[in-house]
């Protein structure tokens, strides 16, 4: 969505988009604060871009002078809907993959992304995944379907990724075997 360079006072040095955000206003943006304090590459959370009007994540990287001191930062805005389409193009229809930022807002979602990107995770689902950095869980998704999920937190970003399949599909063979075993067991008892 945009590529730019700012100095340590958040003044715009370069912006690919016309009409860049003035420093006073830019200082209110979380990704600018991140760019000003970070000593290395950093990835931001979901952010509604002022210039694009779209949900983005902003990547920042410090710019250093000849002496190695930070003199500003480079920022690159990635439009989340476009990223979502590229990443999840080949995901099977019955699978659901979701990525949440550090504030439990949807960054990416393999199903119905347009309805969810940038929105907060509803309370019941947020409660179900709270405290899960890595592991497995069974819970209802925002669409009401019970799924078995595997989740992991991405170390450098703090983003959480969950991939799930419908419980009924995953457990179909198990349930069929269990029901057959129950029928055989009842028949033997009778």
Folded structure, characterized:
The chain has 190 residues and is of the alpha+beta class. It has seven helices and eleven strands. The protein is elongated, with a radius of gyration of 22 Å.
What structural keywords apply?
34% strand, 28% helix, single chain, alpha+beta, six-stranded antiparallel sheet, five-stranded antiparallel sheet, 190 residues
Helix vs. strand class: alpha+beta
Low-confidence stretches: none
Task: Work out the helix count.
Answer: 7
Strand content: 25-35%
Radius of gyration: 22 Å
Termini Cα gap: 70 Å
Largest sheet: 6 strands, antiparallel
Rough outline: elongated
Short description:
Helices cover 28% and strands 34% of the residues. It is built from seven helices and eleven strands.
Per-chain topology:
Blueprint: E1 2-7, E2 12-15, H1 23-26, H2 30-37, E3 42-43, E4 47-48, E5 55-64, E6 70-79, H3 80-87, E7 96-100, E8 106-109, H4 113-116, H5 123-129, E9 134-140, E10 146-153, E11 160-166, H6 167-170, H7 172-189
Antiparallel strand pairs: 1-2, 1-6, 3-5, 4-5, 5-6, 7-8, 7-11, 9-10, 10-11
């Amino acid at each position: 969505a945009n590529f730019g360079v700012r100095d340590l006072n958040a003044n715009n040095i370069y912006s690919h988009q016309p009409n860049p955000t003035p420093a006073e206003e830019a200082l209110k943006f979380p990704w600018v604060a991140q760019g000003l304090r970070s000593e290395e590459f950093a990835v931001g959370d979901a952010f509604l871009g002022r210039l694009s009007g779209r949900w983005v994540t902003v990547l920042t990287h410090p710019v250093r002078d000849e002496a190695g001191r930070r003199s500003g930062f480079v920022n690159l805005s990635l439009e989340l809907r476009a990223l979502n389409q590229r990443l999840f193009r080949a995901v099977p229809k019955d699978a659901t993959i979701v990525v949440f930022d550090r504030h439990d807002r949807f960054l990416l979602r393999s199903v119905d992304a347009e309805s969810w990107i940038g929105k907060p995770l509803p309370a019941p689902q947020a409660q179900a995944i709270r405290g899960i950095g890595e592991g497995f869980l069974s819970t209802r998704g925002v669409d009401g379907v019970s799924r078995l999920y595997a989740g992991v937190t991405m170390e450098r970003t703090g983003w959480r990724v969950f991939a799930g399949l419908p419980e009924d599909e995953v457990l179909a063979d198990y349930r069929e075997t269990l029901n057959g075993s129950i029928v055989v067991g009842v028949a033997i008892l009778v």
